[in-house]
Task: inverse folding
């Protein structure tokens, strides 16, 4: 008969999220995780399979709970409204005092030097998924006349994502919400009329 779990999985995932967000994937050890989660290594492996398995669970939860602004942004009535909403919500997320600064996915992406690894693939998939949704929304805006016909939806989606990633690094380096809001205002001056 299997033993019952003796720890709160949701709280354990929250603790792991905090560690990964603050330290990055590669600098977060199994010892760090089990200590923060209050569990033993055997319990860890039984519950999550591996560090990669736990990280995928963390990313899924992060996307579901913290990245809802993407869907909100996509529902804005204009392409400019989509860009504005997304960038300002990114600035809010990256400077939320209840969480580490920056973005969990960005904080964990750079140190990964193995492009073929499952963590790198998961992070790439999240980024590409967000960019694809933006691209599709900007294609709709161009088709409806909200964006000029000569504007490239893929280029605009990439622009928004790159500005967002830059703000994540800036927040991690100490930029305030006001600093990031100024960055958003500057970036929006480049938006096509």
Result:
């Amino acid at each position: 008969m299997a033993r019952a779990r003796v720890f709160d999985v949701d709280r354990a995932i929250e603790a792991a999220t905090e560690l990964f967000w603050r330290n990055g994937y590669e600098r977060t050890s199994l010892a760090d995780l089990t200590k923060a989660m209050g569990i033993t290594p055997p319990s860890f492996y039984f519950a999550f399979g591996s560090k990669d398995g736990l990280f995928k669970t963390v990313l899924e939860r992060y996307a579901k709970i913290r990245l809802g602004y993407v869907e909100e942004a996509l529902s804005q009535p204009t392409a400019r409204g989509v860009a504005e909403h997304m960038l300002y919500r990114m600035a809010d997320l990256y400077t939320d005092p209840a969480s580490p600064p920056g973005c969990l996915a960005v904080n964990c992406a750079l140190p990964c030097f193995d492009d073929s690894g499952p963590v790198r693939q998961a992070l790439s998939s999240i980024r590409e998924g967000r960019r694809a949704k933006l691209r599709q929304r900007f294609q709709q805006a161009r088709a409806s006349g909200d964006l000029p016909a000569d504007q490239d939806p893929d280029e605009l989606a990439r622009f928004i994502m790159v500005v967002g990633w830059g703000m994540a690094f800036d927040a991690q380096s100490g930029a305030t919400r006001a600093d990031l809001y100024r960055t958003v205002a500057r970036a929006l001056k480049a938006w096509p009329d």
Q: What stands out?
A: The chain has a mean pLDDT of 89.
